[in-house]
């Protein structure tokens, strides 16, 4: 119902077929709300009456006895309402004038229409019966026996539990298929571990792969009360100090909490509190700032509005980088990250954490070394080769100082008269789950309390010496590193087919003499040689020796990744033996020390 | 760049399917830049993009292809290249350009068992 007394012409184009030019035909829309809807659609590039916006039209014609259009719209969108109930709400307030308006919309607007939306309008003007099984996706009833609802027949229903997702590694679109709408459009699906009050995000996927709008429902009817509080994943929050306070950013596309969760940040130094509400995608409000400065710590708590409403249970603490608090012992400058791990403003994407594990768990071995997510295979391959031949050299090159720092010694250009001592602390860049992003140690924990430190600290010292992780993370020579570690000059030999016996003899002799060896594969332009061989292009390996089995000669190698190898010895630890004939085909160079 | 393979649980959430398949044809091969022989490894060089045909022998999850089907997928520019006969688990993702092979080393990125285990943990089927 509407008070607008005079119909107002809304001119539209209509298509009269292939032999007629598009003509303007007036629509005389009496209802001001319907007219506003039409004008708003005309302002868009692709006017369309959808399953979503048709509710505005239903609200416009359903107002009157049931209250304002806003109130009717609220009723039309309340959880669990059926399509038939929506239709009845609209029909009960429909006037003959509004029926005429809807008829004009159907006949003259030229607007595209979702089938369900069109059926609503046709049913309201009496041209067709209401079909109750059109979309959009609607969840009906409670979730005591699963998630039920209606969608278009044949659509699959995808869902994600936003209350549990922040604790895992799921993105918002990492849904699971819970069911398929039957011929009448009804579906019933189940999800594991859904509890009362959980926020479930759903969408429908058509056979052509297209997806509908997301809807979010809060699970009801499962238990007597909501006992699962919201979670907040603190690893997904970054704090940065600036002139106008602390900038708070959500550092991943994975949700950090559930929609609507109340997050509280309390500055441990000043006691100031800031409460914020998680957005509908489980993120933080844009532009969020906290009062504080570099070095401050914030205690973070979360409530879903039913549990932990007094925020007495604190999830954890976030520290603002910088300042002097937090790190015990001497804090030395750290090499910058590789450019791939830097933000546009020059700040690192990953944070530093102080590692306090032992320098050596036991005698250094090649198996201790694990390359991180950086293009410096030549470095761990070289260090593993040295550890294989001369573990004492590793123990001699890195020392812990009385003040808790470390000193690592290299030799410039492999010249023992030109030692380079690098003093560093044990702060390492870490992933969101805590493990080092660059080099780490295998064979034990990667936790900051217990990881063996000799390899990651030598790598950090090398980055510090050369300028940054970027300076050492875009390729290099294993021979040069072995030279700089041991203070001896380097040499190399190009590997070629037909040199199997000579190379076998050389490797055997050099290893017996205590000469560390490494090998490099061909470049990326020959990458097709490698797929399915277990060996990788543009990569360096430690050469650990040779062996003969059943008359066939093999070279013993190690991949510095600590995994991914030729053959299948059931271990996948990076150690493998390769027939010499394959070695001469797949490898380009052999690095030696003179 | 001979970086280690990505952690599978950082890639699989974005995947739409995973299949066991064999490369039956290189449909298109972008021009491959050649590089001088070098003593350096992990250089920032890449193998060119390819469009390849896969014959699917088993579907691990997803509906991008059925067992026995032949599908054309994009091998993006990166650290590896494919040739006819290559096989293994291919993790696939839809992009605006088409279906793309995910994982830094294509079928040599993760073993089949790791893909299946991670997919199960994510509820992908």
Describe what this molecule looks like in 3D:
The complex is a heterodimer of chains A (594) and B (125). With 594 residues, chain A is an alpha+beta fold. Chain A folds into 5 domains: 8-124, no CATH class; 138-218, Immunoglobulin-like (Sandwich), CATH 2.60.40; 234-319, Immunoglobulin-like (Sandwich); 353-477, no CATH class; 490-593, Cathepsin B, Chain A. Chain A contains 13 helices and 31 strands. In chain A, helix 2 crosses helix 3 (69-76), helix 5 runs antiparallel to helix 6 and helix 7 (378-389) crosses helix 11. The model of chain A is unreliable at 1-24 (pLDDT under 50). Chain B is mainly beta. Chain B has a single domain (8-31, 38-121), classed as Beta Barrel (OB fold (Dihydrolipoamide Acetyltransferase, E2P)). In chain B, 11% of the residues lie in helices and 37% in strands. Chain B has helices at 8-11, 112-121; strands at 17-29, 50-62, 70-75, 87-95, 98-102. In chain B, strands 3-2-1-4-5 form a 5-stranded antiparallel sheet, with helices on one face. The longest helix of chain B has 10 residues, at 112-121. At the A-B interface, strand 31 of A face strand 4 of B.
Quick overview of this protein structure:
Chain A has 594 residues and is of the alpha+beta class.
Layout of strands and helices, then pairs:
The complex is a heterodimer of chains A (594) and B (125).
Chain A: E1 8-14, E2 23-29, H1 32-42, E3 48-49, H2 54-62, H3 69-76, H4 83-92, H5 96-108, E4 112-113, H6 115-124, E5 138-140, E6 147-150, E7 156-161, E8 176-180, E9 186-189, E10 199-205, E11 215-218, E12 237-242, E13 245-250, E14 262-267, E15 273-277, E16 289-290, E17 297-303, E18 314-319, E19 351-354, E20 369-370, H7 378-389, H8 391-397, E21 398-400, E22 406-411, E23 419-424, E24 427-430, E25 440-441, H9 454-466, H10 469-472, H11 478-486, E26 490-494, H12 500-512, E27 517-521, E28 540-549, E29 552-558, E30 575-579, H13 580-586, E31 587-593
Helix pairs in contact in A: 2-3, 2-4, 5-6, 7-8, 7-11, 12-13
Chain B: H1 8-11, E1 17-29, E2 50-62, E3 70-75, E4 87-95, E5 98-102, H2 112-121
Antiparallel strand pairs in B: 1-2, 1-4, 2-3, 4-5
